[in-house]
Design a protein that fits this description.
CATH architecture of the largest domain: 3-Layer(aba) Sandwich
Strand order of the largest sheet: 2-1-3-4
Distance between the termini: 30 Å
Structural class: alpha/beta
Number of domains: 2
Oligomer: single chain
Largest sheet: 4 strands, parallel
Helix content: 40-55%
Number of helices: 8
Order of helices and strands: EHEHEHEHEHEEHEHH
CATH class of the largest domain: Alpha Beta
Strand content: 15-25%
Radius of gyration: 17 Å
Mean pLDDT: 91
Low-confidence stretches: 228-234
Amino acid sequence: MTNALIVAHGQPSDPRPAGAALEDLAARVEALLPGWSVGAATLAEEGAIARAVAGRPAGVVFPMFMTGGWFTKVQIPKRLAEAGAAGWSVLEPFGCDPAVHDLCVALVREAAATEVILAAHGSFKSAVPSDIAFHVAGRIGAETGADVAAGFIDQEPQLASLTGRTGVCLPFFAAEGGHVSDDIPAALAEAGFTGRVLPPVGLDARVPGIIAAALVRGVPVCAGACRWAQGQNP
C-alpha cells in the first residue's frame, strides 16, 4: 500500500466544511489508484495533519495549492515534523502542474469565451504566484485566441481595476472559499464586469485524475515549483 496525503490551506474561519470537501476529493483520487491510501488534511483545521499521518508509513504529500512557496516549502514540512511524521516527501503543488494549465485552456474553450479574466490570489511579497498566473493567461490567449487579462486579489493589477471587460472569469483557485465566493465577485462588481464567473479550476471533474497522475509521477516540490522562482516554466 502506498500512502498519500492531500494538504490544502482550508478556511480558518470555518475549517470543517473545507476539510470535508478535501476528504471527498481524496476519496475520488483514491478510487483511481488501486493499491494507494489517500488521506486529506487542511492547515486550517487544528491537528488535521497529525491525525492524517498517525500510524501510517511514510508516503507522499500533494499540496493542493496554486503555487509553491512558504506553505509548501516551510509550513507543510513543519507540520509534518511536529506530528512526528518522518520520511514523507512533499510533491509539486497542484497549480504548478502543466496538466492544470492544460485544463484552464480547455475550460475557456468549453466556455466559448473570447474575453477572459483569470482571477488569481497573487502576493505583495513574492512574484512566484503571479508568474504562474501570467503564464497560464498567456497559454489561454495563445491557444484559444481569447483576449485574456490576469487580475489579482493581493497585488497589481487588482481585479477591481480590470474595467470594461465581459466574457468569463476563471478563478485560478484550488477550492471554493471566501476568496472565490466573496472577494472575486465583489472585485468584479467594482470593475463593472458583466460576464459569467466559472467555478474555480480545482473543482473541475477532471481534477482527481490530474492529482492521481501527479501522485504516480511523484515530482518533488524542489524539482518543479522552484523553477517558477527562477523565472522558468515548469
